[in-house]
Amino acid sequence: MSVHFSEAEFSARRERLLAAMKAEKLEAMLLFAQESMYWLTGYDTFGFCFFQCLVVTADGKMVLLTRSADQRQAEQTSNLGDIRIWTDRQDADPTAELKDILDELNLLGALVGVEYDTHGLTAANGRRLDQRMRAFARLVDQSMIVPELRLIKSEEEIGFVRQAARQADDAFDAALAITKAGANEADILAAMHASAFSSDGDYPGNEFIIGSGQNALLCRYQSGRRILDPQDQLTLEWAGVYRHYHAAMMQTVPVGGATERHGQLHVAASQALTEIEAALQNSASESVTLGDLFAIHARVLDGAGLARHRLAACGYSLGARFAPSWMEPHMLYAANERVVEPGMVLFAHMIIMDSDSGTAMTLGRTFLTTTDGAEQLSRHGYELIER
Predict the structure, then answer these.
(1) pLDDT tens, 204-213?
(2) Do 156 and 369 contact (CB within 8 A), yes or no?
(3) CA distance readout (Å), 5 to 10, 43, 156, 166, 336
(4) Each residue of 16-62: pLDDT tens digit?
């Protein structure tokens, strides 16, 4: 079986979920997020692009409803013993089978939490679910129960994150080794992925970002490659991924020498990231919120006259995630009152895109919060790297 956690780990997670359900007076949870299923049972698939649901009752029973293509996937990658299959057919509506399962579990009239806020439940299927359960059970949105539990990582999870961070560093080194004027973005991207996969890495939750020239100012992956000019800039955002756990990094690398504007923007970015790291270190002894971290980012960049060139968020929690994004819901944005606690894995990115001069500058690192403060997980510092 391809299960990556101990039974003690799964048992502890299950007990935490049941306690959270009890606090909300829930008699069952309908889990649709793939990362929730993976966290709770080890179930590992991309089959969540179709309808599937993990039912968890207040007494700890778990039943998975999925398609035939994922039956063996569930059998071999999870600790689930009760796997039900809905049949592909014209006008299939698997919410009917789901209702039958809930009826079998004596959940008529029950208060049932639902993970609505996930790519694992499309709007169309969500509407079918609501319609099917209208006269059967009371559904309430409890999309954040499992993400909140997943926010604090266990020692087993932290071990996976550390391996992911090593992969991220190695991928960056592979990219830097061939980044120069005349290099092809395709070769750089290939080198990064080859490095990651050769270390038993996984596919990331979203594409690596690579862009040069004007495309260095983009914050998303786009199709198409170009050759680096003698004077250029290359923005990379990538992650090491081990057992689906992500450790992300981001950096803009001037090619052919940094311009004066590159230098100015890097000073601001590195100062902001340094001050955020200091705040994370202080979180061991004083209350620091995710909103406080964003406020540092805004204060430093705005103080450098870069308010028009920065973003409205500067990071997020990381963990085990599936496509289409490696971002967890907890984000570093204004007034986010979630307090930083030991065991969080936080990616802080300084993204400055000066469209007036066509200059990009980014700098992002992953941090592990601890009882002593915080640890920056990359062996790379915050220096400006040129090629």
Answers:
(1) 999 999 999 9
(2) no
(3) 7, 11, 7, 20, 32
(4) 999 999 999 999 999 999 999 999 999 999 999 999 999 999 999 99
**What is the total residue count of the chain?**
387
Whole-angstrom distance, CA of residue 183 vs CA of residue 168: 21
Structural tokens at position 156 = 């087993």
At position 343, the amino acid (one-letter code) is G
95-104 vs 123-133: helix crossing angle, rounded to 10: 40
Contact (CB, 8 A) for 195 and 171 = yes
Tell me the two tokens of residue 228.
């680096």
- Based on its alpha-carbon atoms, the radius of gyration of the chain, rounded to whole angstroms, reads 22
The model's pTM is 0.97
Q: What whole-number distance in Å separates Cα of residue 299 and Cα of residue 308? A: 13
Dist. CA 119–CA 116, nearest whole Å: 9
